[in-house]
Amino acid sequence: MxxxxxxxxxxxxxxxxxxxSTTSQHKKGKKEFEIFYSSSLAGTIVRIDKYSRxxxxxxxxxxxxxxxxxxxxxxxxxxxxxxxxxxxxxxIVKPAYSDTLLLIKGGKVYLYTFQKL
Length: 117
Fold this sequence. Notes:
Elements: H1 2-38, E1 41-51, E2 54-59, E3 62-68, H2 74-77, H3 82-85, E4 91-94, E5 100-105, E6 108-113
Antiparallel strand pairs: 1-2, 1-4, 2-3, 4-5, 5-6
């Protein structure tokens, strides 16, 4: 009986731990998206990293680490994956609340739409 009670207790504990982790990650993602989406960006990339299923970057004129989940598209960005093509020294432009980010690389402009959380 005690063994069954212990197993049930551990399963409940695991369920609540997973639920809390998922909920807090979702809230964090929404907050990061709101910061990115509401920001007017125009600067040069100084740092870029893979982030979960997306990318994050820091610009030369803003110390905030922006995270977003860009879509790869044949017509907008020639199927170029943002996190593989964007490098330090490339430029980014995105008006506040715009649904498109411009990556300027060597005189070529790539357009990236992104997942809205």
